[in-house]
Amino acid sequence: MHDTLPLLELTDFPPIRRKTLDTLQVNLGYLCNIACLHCHVGAGPRRKELMDRDNIELVLEFLDRQNIKTLDVTGGSPEMNPHFRYLMSSAASMGVHLMDRLNPTIIEEPGYEWVADFLAEQRMEVVASLPCYSEDNVDAQRGDGVFESSIRALRKLNDLGYGKPGTGLELNLVYNPLGPSLPPPQAALEADYKQHLGDEFGIEFNQLFTLANMPIQRFGSVLVSKGQFDDYMQLLKDAYRRDNLENVMCRTLISVDWQGYVHDCDFNQMLSMPIGAYPKPRTHLRELVNEDLKGKPIAIADHCYGCTAGQGSSCGGALN
Ligand code: SF4
Ligand code: SF4
Q1: Helix residue ranges, H only, 203-256
Q2: By alpha-carbon position, which residue is closest to atom 1 of ligand 1?
Q3: What residues form DSSP beta bridges with 261?
Q4: 302 lines ligand 2 (CB under 6 A)
Q5: Is the overall model pTM greater than 0.85, yes or no?
Q6: Which of 46, 110, 142, 315 has the fewest CB atoms within 10 Å distance of its CB?
Q7: Which atom of ligand 2 is the closest one to the Cα of 249?
């Protein structure tokens, strides 16, 4: 795989600093019940990397000391970390809003029958990946049978009240383009998704988050192999919108890897760029428990243009 960081380091992206931190995003490990072609962490059933109990305790201490409003967990399939239920129920009892980045097929995996009920009991916001409403496209990206399994899992979440008006149980879906183009306008695509998934499968959900593809990891490597890297970077730069800069997700979030090291966002984590001005040595979460991060510089490179292009892109979808 081509490492795209050397192509991104020399950047003219504007310097940015953190505002008040409100979200801690934590990668609980790379274990996943499926292995998608596009997976940016190379997760799969044979991966052994999982956050250990000491780091889980540290996450809880950090949430408490820093008065963090939202815990956003990702993976792999975060539910496959053996400490998942302990972490999430402990954080819920502290009044923290919980977000689970769910691969819906885990709900049907033998041994994980508890997942759907547990998500609802803890009133977690669910952000589920479903890269298309067409079976062929989803199965091509994620593997045979994944679409059908995802649909059954989403129905189960609907049965528990997820995505239904008045329940407060939020079910949001995530879309990113298959190739080197910007996502279509979020509101129009959301309406399409709602119509298709509603009419064909009776599925309801709250919002669709559209994300731009980042020129990193497997997607970046494919761009390099096909000679499309420079064109895609130009597309992102040409679509730069300054008003998105205020709201890029790193302004209010930090991202912790499965070993407890801290990055300015998930993309920087995938590029092994430590938190703060780059390059510098990596920083562990334990060093930041009592640290005020407001006003501190954020490590940037050319991939940051992926967050500011067009309608903007973040882990919560479009920025405007
Ligand atoms: S479901 Fe998500 S974490 Fe698992 S392999 Fe696919 S993209 Fe990676
Ligand atoms: S890639 Fe990360 S650091 Fe760069 S603007 Fe986006 S969220 Fe911020």
Answers
A1: 217-225, 229-238
A2: 103
A3: 284
A4: no
A5: yes
A6: 110
A7: 7
